[in-house]
Amino acid sequence: MNFIQIQHFMSIMKYMSLTKAAKELYITQPALSHSLSRLEQELGIPLFYRDNNRLVITRECSEIFGDLYDLYEAYEVMMKHARELKLNQQKKIRLGFSGSVVTFSSLFFHGILTSYNNVPIEKMFADYDQVKLMLENETLDLAITFPPIEGGGKLITKIIARDEIVAVMNRMHPLTKKPAVTREDLEKYTFEMLTEPNPYRKYMDRLLKEENITLKMNEHDYDDYLKVFQENELVKPVIALSPLRRVRQWYGEGYQVRRMKDVKMELVTGLSWNSSSDIPYKYQDLTQQIEKYYPEMDGVDIDESLLF
User: Fold this and answer.
1) One digit per residue, pLDDT tens: the chain, 308 residues?
2) Where in the chain is the domain with CATH 1.10.10.10?
3) Taking the domain 3-89, which CATH number applies?
4) Which fold does the domain 93-160+269-306 belong to in CATH?
5) End-to-end Cα, the chain, rounded Å
6) Nearest CA among 272, 192, 194, 267 for reference residue 233
7) How many CA atoms lie within 13 Å of 85's alpha carbon, on the beta-carbon side?
8) Cα 55 to chain center, whole Å?
9) Which residues contact 135 (CB under 8 A, 6 or more apart)?
10) pTM of the predicted structure, to 2 decimals
């Protein structure tokens, strides 16, 4: 049943006049008559009859009026609630983040991301696919992700940071004796890598393909990947590819870093939003501040002591 028809019915009951009801509803009288006829057809009963150009309610109408009024009132309450929810949503900015939990912790407490022009910023951490879906569904206004969410459809991504990809290894690995890692080294040694469904792994596969490098690898899910480096620091040679600014976060103490020679790969961080949303334009200064201060908010300085 169409609730607009019930609204029309209530206006007719209010004035007992199609002319006055149509005027209040800003529709034509024929359109109102058609709406009433559709409602009567759906209910299977007559609601009014005419007596010398005067509307009179039928017996059936008097008996069903209470039910129709309850529906009308429930609809009005629901719409009021929906308007309040929409108003509350407009009073906050919903920011999603996907990447490192440690980085998210730094972002969470950064003053810039607490509020903007007295509008609170609601922050949440989720995996890459969840954040992308929430942007598509407009349950998030903005998202900071690495790897960046690829554009396409309604999603727009702006690059806000770049981080050099380096080789990170324990002291037992033979590449610690070299000042840099060459293309030949990348194809000679076996690297520890995350499994394919992981967004970072997908991103690395793309970078390696662009560089025309075939990597030999041991694949692990996230938890096992971390254990490899925790348990083998002093046991056997291990090596991986990592963004430089996240070596400390991901691998801790005891690991060394070598830059690439003749190979350039970067982890890119993106700020994304749905093109249907007005938030990035309404709060343009906020997006510019995120872009400007993200390296500071990231909270992880490049540690030159890790380099050869």
Assistant:
1) 678 888 899 999 998 999 999 998 888 999 999 999 999 999 999 999 888 878 899 999 999 999 999 998 998 888 888 777 766 665 788 888 887 655 555 565 566 677 777 788 888 888 888 889 999 988 899 999 888 887 667 899 988 888 899 999 998 999 999 999 999 999 999 999 999 878 888 889 989 999 999 999 999 988 888 888 888 777 889 999 998 888 877 787 778 899 999 899 998 889 999 988 887 777 788 888 888 877 665 545 555 555 55
2) 3-89
3) 1.10.10.10
4) D-Maltodextrin-Binding Protein; domain 2 (3.40.190)
5) 73
6) 192
7) 7
8) 54
9) 96, 143, 149, 155, 272, 273, 274
10) 0.59
